[in-house]
Fold:
Amino acid sequence: MAVTIEIPTAFRRFTEGAPRVDSGAATVAEALTELTTKYPGLSRHVRDEQGQIRQFLNVYLNEEDIRFLNGESSKLKDGDKVLLVPSIAGG
Amino acid sequence: MKEVYFLRCRECGKKYPNQPQSYCEECFSPLEVSYDYEALRQNTSREAVSRRAFNMWRYAEFLPLPQGYAPNQPIGGTPLVKSRNWSQRLGVKNLYFKNDAVNYPTLSFKDRVVATALAAAQRFGFKTIGCSSTGNLANAVAAQGAQQGFDTCVFIPADLEPAKVLNTAVFGGRIIRINGNYDHVNRLCTQIADKFRWGLVNVNLRPYYAEGSKTHGYEIADQLGWELPDNVVVPMAGGSLIGKIAKAFCELAHLGWVEPKRVKFFGAQATGCSPIADGVKRSLARFEPQKPNTIARSLAIGNPADGPFALRLIRESGGWAEDISDPEIIDSIKLLAESEGIFAETAGGVTAGVAAKLVQQGRISPDEITVVCITGNGLKTTDAIAADFPASEAIAPRLEAFEALLQEQLKDTVTA
Structure:
């Protein structure tokens, strides 16, 4: 199974410049863990001291905000894209 | 000369030099513009400001403008109207409407934010500007972009009100319609700003853009005779305006231009998209995003960027947040028009309706000074109320036809 994690520019200084990372994870939580294990520098930017996804980090599974799905337990299938967006702007 | 403003992270406080960037590289929280207030104190005074023309540029020193920037559009300077009939119905004495429905040039408070964003766009050398928008912002970007000679490209949800699309299209420039809601559009714009060298006013220029909203607050204090109100009722979409009004009041108090006061901030949303009001009412630590479903399209942001800050401000100020349904929004638009002669867009209906609800709940006291912020014009959202006003039957251009009609209507009134 292959899932792609899309890395925003802001995160690429922690991923040796990689714009996307392939993952074999089965859930969003696993994908994030895989990512931060591979690039430990990212850990504190992804999760806060309580281990929650940071308030200003938005995580999407394909087109949908994971908060409208099953949150971090949302299941991944082949070809899915996980998108990280720091500090959504707008308004 | 050293610059008197810079960027600063709202959460961790890290400072950054001026640049088109909206978030902190350390904690990914939003950046905002901060000032050297001592320099500001020396550079300007209330008396000097009061001698200038009444528009948003009278507060230029409080805005992140490039040195020597010479604005040529009289934006802002909108009326603060004391309510007579509407407040009488509610039994309150000191209620005002700050009416940005008549802002220049595109009839919403977004003219203010675009003004400061484009000053920054010029400074950073952008040729193309744009935004993600629920309508009003796109109007303002298209108009000022055209006037200042930028290429413009705005992104909107595909199903926006026709009047709002037309009010953008007329200025030229590109409109990209997106199949999705505002939050989808917004996410796409974040990715575009990441990849293209464009100045997206509410994405990479957002810190500069948001400062324009402060002028709505300065004007309120200025028009009250350099006094702060007790309560402010503000519509919330992304949740930025309410915080910038608070920032404006804080700055004026800090410089000693007004007596410090604990102003209560009240947020207004439509029930069909009320993530911030819901967070306040349920005392949530973090708001929960929603899928918008309301006629108040300009407030239909389900994942508000400044939601966390708005939530905190409302709580700490001792204010509250409320929401009203779509039928209540329409009733409020009509009531505001019939009682005060102000035709507000759906967001204005939300704000006025919520203000009334807060008075009825006893959260706003009758004697206190309350300002209700009307941020957009009813001419842009006529679809929402058109069904309530079917065309009347036409009559012949003859006096007897008119008299017969009057008789008919009189009969209707008597029977009713």
Q: What stands out?
A: The mean pLDDT of chain A is 92.
